[in-house]
Amino acid sequence: MNPMSIDKLCDWGERAQPTMPCFQWRGVYINEAFMLTTEILQTLKKYTANMQKKIILYVQPGEHIKKPELMSFLEQFVSTSDKLYLKIADDYRHRSNISFSLWVEEAENKNPLFSGILFSGIPGGHEFNSLVLAVLQLSGTAIKLDENIKKNIQKISAPLRFEIFVSLACHNCPEIVQTINQFAILNQHISTETIDGGLFPSLIEERNIQGVPAVYLNGQLFANGKIDVSVIIEKIDAHAPKETAHQPTAEALPLQDVTVIGGGPAGVACAIYSARKGLKVTLIADRIGGQVKDTLAIENFIATPKTTGPQLVTGLKDHLKDYQINVKEYIKVTKLIDGNIKTLHLSSHEIIQTKTIIVATGAKWKELNIPGEKEYLGKGVAYCPHCDGPFFKDKDVAVIGGGNSGIEAALDLSGIVNSVTVFEFMDTFKADEILLSEAKKRDNIRLIHSVKTQEIIGENDRVTAILYIDRNTQKLHQQSIKGVFVQIGLVPNSQWLKGIVDLTQYGEIKINEKCETSQPGIFAAGDVTTVPYKQIIIAMGEGAKASLSAFEYLIKMQK
Questions:
Q1: Which candidate, 124, 107, 103, places its Cα nearest to that of 33?
Q2: What separation in angstroms does the CA of 466 have from each of 89, 412, 480, 485, 489?
Q3: Predicted TM-score (pTM) of this structure
Q4: Residue 267 has pLDDT above 50, yes or no
Q5: Measured distance CA(343)–CA(345) in Å, rounded
């Protein structure tokens, strides 16, 4: 059984009896007594059946209001394998009486060794997977990081102590937690602690954390809010000794027929269609799933009436595994040299040569580019309402953007915050009528159009107000708020291609009906291109089309 397919376990905390008392942390309801159902325990027994090493969970002694709950949870957890043990031990690494650490017994009668992995709080919700994966990987399950990433992490000799503040409702946090956990397993100089912010409110207040994940390195803020793992890896790579950095030559890697850059719906479709043609295919992506990973509700994917972004991403990953595709995740292209044979330089210090390239790098959230936006990022300015919404419980917030994503954000936030004001620049809202109709039914959602946001104002490292102009009267208004969620659309991830292929003034790659760019052998698909209507289903179709065009190009090359 593949341990990376355990996503279905992450909702275990929500399977408790509905009559069970709950408490709220910043608007997120969490079961008062976490429980592992019989179904989950049986599934865990299957995963732990092949554990090769003993894993000991050391819990800090002492009393805490949540201690009985933590102990009950851990007792159930260790009951799933005779290689799992639970012990009480005082350790200076433990933050509090509800902290526990993972230790590995390499051989019989050998003293256990600290793994570098700690949890402060009860790893429920989405973080349950993080605990399960850490245990399995410490006990012998292979770490599925790119080999060059592993080698660079293993070279680090400086001590790196990470603290990762999470919300159990955050669907972006586990990827960061699980990746840094793997770094700790690979390198004894690295340690990491996952901290449930809901159980440490004074610490959250002290560090003024208003967005998760919030990652600290050696006591200093390292990354905050929505973070790509590839960015984390790049920043950590700076600690590796450069004189010994792994730099394989072009000859060390086979010539590829097709190299796909991007791992969203378009990129995965490109890779699968190319592999089905029997081509040598490499897929390079900073993350599989792209923007889809941040989409919680998907109701317009034909033949699948309702799904979520994380579920769809799991399907994309599983489908990739059916084919001989060289997947290089958490890696970026740093340089492209065009020619009959194209050369790609990667952030992992590798060089790949390929006959064709398909660019499917998608898009990222567009920024307002107004005073206060960057200054208060993670301190009231956010881009992910699902992750950071709980930090604004009973507060007044603004959503900038009246398209589908903006109205969906307002609807999500309305159940948590005191009020939501949606600001739209245009004279009408662009969202689907079904969403607008629902928003108008909510007493705490206010919709304003024909306004231009001017500045985000803050005080003492926190957002306090927003300045905007009424475009009809040209009057300047100031509204008191505590948070701003930016939802004004996407900007193509194409900056690195300037001067290589033709781009529009908006940065979109110009393509024809066959997904061909201005350069022979370079194709493009999905949201990064001029194709209209940025939709998942359209991106997949464009990805299939681009791969078929690349295949046709390769056939002509051989003649």
A1: 124
A2: 50, 21, 7, 12, 20
A3: 0.78
A4: yes
A5: 7
